[in-house]
Design brief:
Helix content is 61%, strand content 0%. By secondary structure, the chain is mainly alpha-helical.
Length: 376
């Protein structure tokens, strides 16, 4: 073969989605510990909101929280903002959500600062302003808020609202990851895998992917599978065919997508398919026992071209997902974002597995061809 042709490797490559920016605002599941009438009103409101010791009543909860918020009690102001953004016990009103979150944020409430940053990042109740989002995330992140730390890391990672700085992204991801944030753990693993902002270290990447995967993070589970597959490939002699002993898992695919609602999957798939054209897999119809050198080389080039096209397709899926995650309606509505992410993972996995299958098919025939007398 004179070294002009080597086994084609189906890349365990991916434009991994950096989770974290599209978080769902939530109400604390426990009461605020403190003293005074406002604290009592707030704690009672939380009890009604969660049905803790009383019959669940979101309207009564909102009324009690509103009374405490009206007296300037920052935790109540923050929660009232969340009730308005979610439409729980009060009519949904994003503008009022901003008003109340800002009141609490101005008092230094870290949760409110993080939430206000998210509202600015996504353009809910205010014009979208990623610079303002970064500023509010920073205020909360410096107080140790893990959500804000993870989201600030994403902004630095992607250069949105702040200059792109992957080293700073890694710092904030790690702070959030150390507090157990699964999105931050996944994203930190990505940086280690790529050597972006930190020295390339697949062992560290696996550690962080594993921690996120253990919490059920679908992206981390997929990334962990890919990383392990890459490790198996790297350990092989480059002159040998690629054999994948374990396919990329589809866990969290269609079933997770369907959980988002009957209209989520078709809409999301339609958006992905309109924006990203899946490569057409070429037929490798040749017999290594009889093929000529020219035929084998042509097949090799064809398989390589498909591999490159697959990589571009995966990049497109990642870009479309990022765009959808920042929209606030349709398939990318934040309440359905998990389902959209699962669909993207499924489509990604299907493309990678098709790429792998073609590489495997070619490698079988390549080994047969190389074994023929007089061709070494």
């Amino acid at each position: 073969m004179n070294g002009e042709m080597r086994p084609t490797r189906s890349r365990a490559w991916t434009h991994l989605v950096r989770a974290g920016a599209g978080l769902v605002l939530f109400v604390a599941s426990h009461a605020f510990n403190g003293s005074g009438n406002d604290t009592a009103l707030f704690n009672s409101g939380i009890s009604y909101l969660n049905g803790d010791g009383v019959t669940k009543d979101e309207m009564q909860a909102a009324e009690l929280v509103k009374r405490a918020a009206g007296h300037g009690f920052a935790p109540a102001q923050n929660v009232l903002g969340l009730l308005y953004i979610q439409g729980r016990g009060v009519p949904k009103n994003e503008s009022l959500a901003v008003v109340w979150c800002r009141k609490a944020a101005d008092q230094g409430n870290a949760s409110a600062q993080s939430n206000l940053g998210l509202l600015y990042e996504q353009g809910h109740g205010v014009p979208k302003d990623e610079t303002q989002a970064a500023a509010w995330y920073l205020k909360a992140a410096t107080q140790g808020n893990a959500v804000a730390q993870s989201n600030l890391g994403t902004l630095y990672d992607q250069g949105r609202g702040v200059p792109k700085d992957e080293a700073r992204a890694a710092v904030w991801y790690r702070r959030a990851a150390d507090q157990g944030s699964a999105p931050a753990q996944n994203n930190l693993g990505f940086l280690y895998q790529r050597g972006s902002g930190v020295p390339k270290d697949d062992a560290q990447a696996q550690v962080w992917y594993q921690r996120a995967a253990d919490q059920g993070d679908a992206l981390a589970q997929t990334n962990l599978k890919i990383l392990r597959a890459q490790g198996r490939e790297a350990a092989k002699d480059l002159a040998q065919p690629v054999v994948w002993h374990e396919g990329i898992a589809r866990r969290g695919g269609l079933a997770a997508a369907n959980a988002g609602g009957p209209d989520v999957a078709p809409t999301a798939v339609s958006v992905f398919e309109k924006s990203c054209v899946a490569p057409t897999q070429p037929a490798v119809a040749l017999d290594g026992a009889t093929a000529t050198r020219e035929q084998m080389l042509a097949a090799h080039l064809s398989v390589h071209a498909y591999d490159v096209a697959t990589m571009s397709y995966l990049e497109c899926l990642g870009s479309v997902y990022n765009r959808m995650s920042h929209q606030k309606s349709g398939a990318a509505d934040q309440s359905d974002l998990h389902a959209v992410a699962a669909l993207r993972v499924m489509m990604h996995n299907n493309a990678v597995e098709a790429d792998k299958a073609l590489a495997d098919e070619f490698n079988v025939q390549l080994n047969v061809f190389k074994a023929r007398p007089g061709l070494q």
